Amino acid sequence: MRNAWLFPLTHWNWKAALMTAVCRAGACMAALGHSPVHAREHFGAVEAAYVLLTAGIFSAWQQQALDIRPRRLSWATVVLAIPLGSLAVDSALHLWLDRGNMRALGIGALIATVISAMFHWHIMQNGAMLVGEKGRALADDMKQMPRLIATFVWYPIRWIAASTRLAKIGNNVPDPEVEIAA
Questions:
Q1: DSSP character for 35?
Q2: How many CB atoms lie within 10 A of CB 2?
Q3: Would the pTM of this model clear 0.85, i.e. be above it?
């Protein structure tokens, strides 16, 4: 039990912290391109410190949550609870520091957070971006990314196509009550 509490510290996910920092830096630069330099610097410094400190811990919790059973609870923890908790802390920090109208940014961040967390679940389930005993070299993880991105996009498309085919097949099956009435 004690090791479970220490997991976020012993398995701080430097891979996720690095990737998150790079992605969020790009997003922040794009979002704040019109802002004064001092505002960009202030926002960037806060963002970098927050992301580098917390992304590794939140990702460690996600990795730890992969072992939760049933699998649906594991998915809900990895994709919803941890990322939305992180986003709530992040939003509270920005509201406290900036006090701006962040509604549009908040909705965009919510959508990006859930999609990102779903991708994180997908890649971790496939053995990438893990640290500790289950982890591999970052270069090995990066070699897998094209395939993992493709399957992340393809699986929902395949599921929708299969569901549509099943719905069409179900609609073409004669209703037994109509057959009897005729």
A1: S
A2: 5
A3: no
